[in-house]
Design goal:
Radius of gyration: 13 Å
Number of strands: 11
Order of helices and strands: EEEEEEEEEHEE
Helix content: under 10%
Amino acid sequence: QVQLVESGGGLVQAGGSLRLSCAASGRTFSSYGMGWFRQAPGKEREFVAAINWSGGSTYYADSVKGRFTISRDNAKNTVYLQMNSLKFEDTAVYYCAADPTIATILSGPASYRYLEVWGQGTLVTVSS
C-alpha cells in the first residue's frame, strides 16, 4: 500500500514561488501515476497536474500551464510541484494522489472519486 505525505506549503506573495513535495512510502511508488489537486474554500476539488510512472508524460490544467511544473524522482519516492508566478487565485489546500496507471486522473472530475490513495494536504496561501 502506498501512503502519501505532502509538504512545502506556506504563505507567499503574488508573483512568488513555492515547491511542493509529496513523499511516498511503499515499494510500488515507481509504478504509479501521480496527480496534484487543489481545493479552495467553498469550491470543488480540481485537477492541477499529473505525471505518469516514468515522468515522461505530464499534464496540466489550463489555469496553471506555463507556471507550474510537475516532476518526480523515483529514487527518492517523491513527486514535486514547482509553482512559479503564483496568483491569489492559486490559494488552496493542495493534495497529491496516486493512480495505478494514470487513466483515472486523466478521465476527468467524475472519476476522481475512484482514486484510493491521497495525502493529507498542504495549504498554499498567496497574498495580494
